[in-house]
Amino acid sequence: MKTLKNNIEKLLLVIALLGTSFFANSQGNGKPTAAVLSIDSKGVINNSESVSYMVRLELEKTNTYNMMDKYDMAELIKKNEIDVTSCYGKSCVVAAGKALGADKMITGSVERFGEKIVISLKVIDIATASVEKHDATEYQNLQPELQRMITISVQRLLGIAPDPNIVNVLVNYDAPIASPQTQLKLNGPRMGASMAFGDAGKVLTAPKSKGGFDMYPATFQIGWQFEKQYISAGNFQALVEFFPMIGGLESGKFIPSATFLNGFRVGKAGWEFAFGPTFRIVTKADGYFENDEWHLEKEWTGTTPNPNTIENRLDSRGFNTLSTSLFMGVGRTFKSGYLNIPVNLYVMPRKEGTIAGFSFGFNIYKKPKVN
User: What CATH class has 188-364?
Assistant: First the structure.
């Protein structure tokens, strides 16, 4: 009877111990205890404690470890006289982890190298004194986005896939940054073609004997684009543009022009529209129409004053003069990394004949200078 009683007591003790163990594991969810001792910071934030707090916060969000409270850590650090300002080596971190009673220690560094910010993090297993996980990621030098950089690094450290959109903005160097403080010059070659309609189109293709220019119906242009953004707010940019162009070379002509535009670019797709004056040198002469035929004013041989209305019209037999018109264009900028390929359609309404055409080119994003 006594033996049976002893066996029952032992069984109850075992059950109690198992229950206590189960309760302890359920409270900790079976997760190891981890601590962030100190993250070295150079050239970014001169306060490693702030960076360490950011790392600890992002680790807590992942719910991978039971993170030690920073106040509990502070007491143990003081009690064990641990110098966190210089404890970055593995042996020191392992010793600190044992003193804190942690299973894992997270350490690393955040450093600026020129136009890059490099975040290196590692998980050290205290029981084996070995580096269990490690991640080193280079970011673009956008210090206000440090918290999001740490988010990416912590997720990569733990094998969690980060948001690809954030990665494209902060990590990928072939994806330019849109920032309210960024003003970029997008200069590059431009080329295209245009066609004149109405009376102007007829004059351009007419023979020289009748005052025409004996040109092809379509005129090709080549030139350069000068662009300056004066407002940049993410997906909206306001800009001024200048286009010096040369046209008519395919017809043996040299027709210079200059266009000044005020443009707006909106949306991630790069849609834009612009308007402004364009100036070109054209050849005009005074003349008149008689029986639907164009004649120069000097061709009138009548004995009485010319009864026909004298007009100033495009004529290859005349004199060079400055002509102006309104330019209105719409287009889209296609992007491949830092390469921009703007494609535009435009129209220039004119009394003597509307001109319509297209142009395209390419230019490169220039990164803003890092101070």
Answer: mainly beta
